[in-house]
Amino acid sequence: MNNIEEILWNYIDGNCTPDEQKAIGALIEQDEAYRAKYAELLLLNKEFSAIELDEPPMAFTYNVMEGIRAEQASVPLKATVNKRIIWGIAIFFVVTISVMLVFAFASMKWSAPGVNVNLPVHLNLRMPSVSSSTTKMIIEGFVFFDAILALYLLDAYLRKKIAAKHV
Amino acid sequence: MQSKLSDIELIEHTLAGNQAAYADLVKRHQRFVFTLALRFTRVREDAEEVAQDCFTKAYRSLASFQGQAKFTTWLYSIVYTTSMTFLRKKRVVTDSLDDENAYIQAESQASVYDVNTAENKSRSFYLNQAIEQLLPDDAAIITMFYKGEQSLEEIAVAMNMETNTVKVKLFRARQRLKEKLERNLKHEAKELI
Q: Measured between alpha carbons, how far is A165 from B34 in angstroms, rounded to an integer?
């Protein structure tokens, strides 16, 4: 400890060991310089405790809560979409592509003039005939749906690009 | 009217989805957070921005509050780091916060202060005026110690400093505050102290 003031501030703040506290208490009682300084610092301490806090604007709480609400509302859509939906879509496409691949390989004629292809596994799947009118309608519907979906995605992509140009 | 629930209870309600509980928490601590922000920024508009930012950050990280320290200590550490970031961005403080030359202007303004008006002003006015002339760190430590009900250890946590450093800084801040108060009050200082 360097000087009387530092010693006395520690005493006032209660940052001394019990022994130090006792010794300083005795010094204040016996030493006039210590006693006068102690009285002065006690008064200062009282004054410092009376510091007034500044008042924020009236709408402070409202502004904070509005800010929080706005932040929550501005969470991008992709962050709020349920992940199970995304997994569901992915599984649907994987299954569809797999079925189409199996269908394509099964209906393929594995022979060519002058070439003899011997497959290690003999595929003997009985696939529905494409020539039948019902299956043809389903495939046409599927292609039509894909075309619409592709156009929709292209439209969304172009809109995004235009919007980005304007920002 | 402020809630009678404790800070921890209000936090639990907030985490359960009750936003009104957080509004109560803001109401309870807004004066101190705003004052602390003002100690650093010195401009009311900036202090308001920083204080709002602090409460928004606290809301976002509320789930990570462990409850090992006081909520206020945790909140004040957010105020301190947010204020520092704000000051860095605004380039108000360049090399060091301890560069007292930056505040010579504020001091000189105080020194030409009219003695006659002193009689009409309250004691707290002079005290707050003296605090405004302190370095931001000193003013923040004084405010946290006397008005934030924070111990030296808690201030050290909030300001990311050693407890001994805070102890020394508090001692120096008190000395500087006393000097500035005396300078501002001139003859009235004797009456006040």
A: 40
Q: Which chain A residues have a beta carbon less than 8 Å from that of B48? A: 56-57, 60
Contact B173, B134 (CB under 8 A): yes
Q: What Å distances lie between residue B131 and A85, B143, B159, CA to CA?
A: 58, 9, 18
Residues B46-59 have pLDDT tens digits of 999 999 999 999 99
Cβ atoms of B144 and B150 closer than 8 Å: yes
Complex ipTM: 0.73
The position carrying tokens 């210590």 is A34
Structure tokens at A24: 């300083």
- Judged by CB atoms closer than 8 Å, whether chains meet at B128 and A49 is answered as no
> In angstroms, what separates the C-alpha of A34 from chain B's closest C-alpha?
16
Distance from CA of B126 to the nearest CA of A (A): 10
Q: Do B193 and A51 touch (CB under 8 A)?
A: no
Helix (H) or strand (E) segment spanning residue A137: helix A133-166
A31 touches chain B (CB under 8 A): no
B136-161 pLDDT tens trace: 889 999 999 998 888 899 999 999 89
Residue spans of the domains in chain A: they are: 3-50, 83-112+121-166
Mean pLDDT of all residues in A104-113: 74
